[in-house]
Structure formats: structure tokens, C-alpha cells
Amino acid sequence: MDVRNVETVTPEVEHNGTVPVWWLIHPREMKEITDGGFLELANEFEVAVGGEVFPHSHPTHEFYFVMTGKGVMTIAGEHRDVNPGDLIHIPPDAVHSLRPTGDEAIHCFCFAVGVKGAGPIDYTTH
Fold first, then answer.
1. For the chain, which end, N or C, has fewer CB atoms within 10 Å of the first or last residue's CB respectively?
2. pTM of the predicted model, to two decimals?
């Protein structure tokens, strides 16, 4: 499972020395596995205490960035605790789910890169 956190990254100075940048994915680092893909979606979502994202899969490279709350991410049967600042990569067609732990909801930013040639996805059932 690929989970990266800003707390473990040393910032680099970019834009002519004006901005510190915490690279969670370096430029072109994922070019080979996403080549020919497209930005499928970007959103924010929240899972309430006691809830869970229904286990599902789709033909995208999906990324969750945990903004607030703590939880357990499950990808292809592997479980991992996730916390604010974590960026989680979910490979195409991997069954995944997320549930909050503790006494607050988990709130995430999500974006996905569609796989070249993939058809439309019905997110109401996936």
C-alpha cells in the first residue's frame, strides 16, 4: 500500500526561492503508470463515525488525501491506519474501502486519473 505523509517529507524551495514545496509525488514520477490517462474526477468526501465507504473498485488511479480525522484504509485486503496529511494511492481495479476510527468523521480530498481506454463509471454503484 502506498501512503505518503507531508510530515515525513523535507520541503524543497521552488519558484525562484519563494515557496517551500512538500512533494508527495515528484513531477513525472507516475508518468509510466498513468501515461495516456486523464483526470477523471476531483472531490471532497466525508465518512461519518460508524460509517464506511462501501468496498468497491474502478479502472482509475485514485488518490485520497486525508484532511481531518483518522481511519483505516483497506486496499486489496491490506489494512493500514491513515491520518491527516496522508496521501493514499489506490491502483486501478483494486478493491478499496475506508472507515473512520475514533470519535470524529474522516474528511478527504480525492482525485482520480482514468486509465486509457476505460469507459464511463457509474459512481452511484461503484
1. C
2. 0.90
Structure confidence at residue 5 as a pLDDT band (50, 70, 90): very high
Q: How confident is the model at residue 26 (pLDDT cuts 50, 70, 90)?
A: very high
Print burial letters for 39-69: b (CB count within 10 Å at least 16), e (below 16).
Answer: ebeeeeeebeeeeebeeebbbbbbbbbbeeb
Looking up residue 105, the CATH number of its domain turns out to be 2.60.120.10
Does residue 84 lie in a domain region? Answer: yes
d(CA 68, CA 55): 21
Residue 86 lies in a domain: yes
Per the structure, the complete domain to which residue 38 belongs is given by: 2-114
Q: Which amino acid is at 115?
A: V
- Distance between CA atoms of 30 and 117, rounded to whole angstroms? 18
